[in-house]
Design goal:
This protein has about 100 residues and is mostly helical. The chain is built from four helices and two strands.
Amino acid sequence: MMSTCAPNLSKVVKVLCDGGYGGEKFANAVRVLMGAEVEVVKRNELHTFVVLPKWWVVERTFGWLEKFHRLWKNCERKLHNTLQMTVLAFISLLLKRY
């Protein structure tokens, strides 16, 4: 999957992921295919709330997108339609802040 998307992700410098992707095999595959560095954000202790560094940026973005009803469930037949709806949602967010 990553090899088919790699040409479109040539500007990616760093990939943030959780502890499930902490293996060297994954990091090497990302480095070879995309030329990007992998940064793993790990939890220190289980069952305690700790704000993970940089992870909140991703969660906040998903929270913004959840406000758009059409993005709650992927009902589009083609992938590019979903991408266009996501772009429109972000444009709407930016216009509201302007």
